[in-house]
Amino acid sequence: MQETSKPEKIYPFPEGIENLHGYQPGGYHPANICDAYSNGRYRIIHKLGFGSYSTVWLARDSHSERYVALKILVADSSKDSNEARIIRHITRSSSKAFVRPILDDFQIDGPNGQHRCLTTEPTRCSLADAKFSPPWIFRTDVARAIATQTILGLRAIHASNVVHGGKSPLSSCLPYADYLHDLHPNNILLALPDINHMSVDDIYHHFSTPQRTEVQRLDGGPLGPGVPSHATLPALLFVKSVEVEDPRICITDFGESWFGDAVQPKSHNTPMLYRPPEALFAKELIGFPSDIWTLACFVFEIMGERPLFESFFAHEPEVVSEMVSCLGPLPPSWWDAWEERSNYFVENGVWRTDVGLRSRPLRSRFQTMGRQKHPDPLSPEEAESLAVMLSTMLEYDPAKRASATDVVNSDWMTRWGLPSLKPFNTSV
Fold first, then answer.
1. Are strands 113-120 and 104-110 parallel, antiparallel or unpaired?
2. Would you say 166 and 269 are in contact if contact means Cβ atoms under 8 Å apart?
3. pLDDT tens, 267-277?
């Protein structure tokens, strides 16, 4: 039997740069600093980030005299992307979705095909980036405000009849990465202070001068017509979680979102640690409640330093065992369908003694989430209220899960969540 050959490795994989093999027909557009688009209206001055389906650039809009984030989709995704339509629908339906409106939408032609371009207000780094360095935790007041905005945002998104959905991770963690389409710390971005008054030199002084690296083939051969001569590192918009003073957020990346009355997708590719159980055992049930499960995982992680379900390699069987450890036995039909259960349990559902795992109910996880050793820990009363709210969001049966409106009306939101926004002058 003939083995399938692996794709030829033509380029190196420099750290902090998109996969250079993506510069091919149907792939990335070879943009560069100082390039101008839309009849010269947008001039690129820096790079903001990239994902598997786009690169994102900081550009100056000569018409409005402001800076914008210019997202250039890969050519193959440009043909049938629904993201702009979804975002426009949400922002027209509600001003409280914490979603930045699309400012412009146009097409460009390049050596790798025709690319759709979207402009929005620029934002800062993702929450995941902010938590990437010690102490891996936000101030308590900031964490409350971030969680609250995200809850309010999802209510507005659902009220617009949109399911946020999920896409599998395919790239490294960077601002504006477009490979995670769900309520995950990678696609909740922090607001950027107003920079429109800054000159380009000021931008470079505050956020770094563009750093470029020459693109060379491993075999020394010539670059193709669709490959840039230099690759650009993203601007340094990073801020440590403990140093975040402005908790305003923006929910991004609706590339795999869908309208609630549309045909459900065949898969739900939210990263495993945040994936709802129906995506594993009953895909026909994927819908609005699936977002609620992912939101609960998000809120727990933002309020602490650790994810709710822990697995070093985010391996599906380990994550399911973590669900059982935290929330109790799976529904009988799902338990019977879980082929790997014998790796963790004996037939009567008791934990195997040789796997080193045990039951760690939700409330006990609050003791190890990292917040209790913080200078401003959660009070026992708040921790219990938060645990009650999360429990309603983590029902195995999607039909029994709290709705986004239920979550907004919960005790924790009323007593701690919503009041947390007032000191930051964040509109609800």
1. antiparallel
2. yes
3. 556 889 999 99
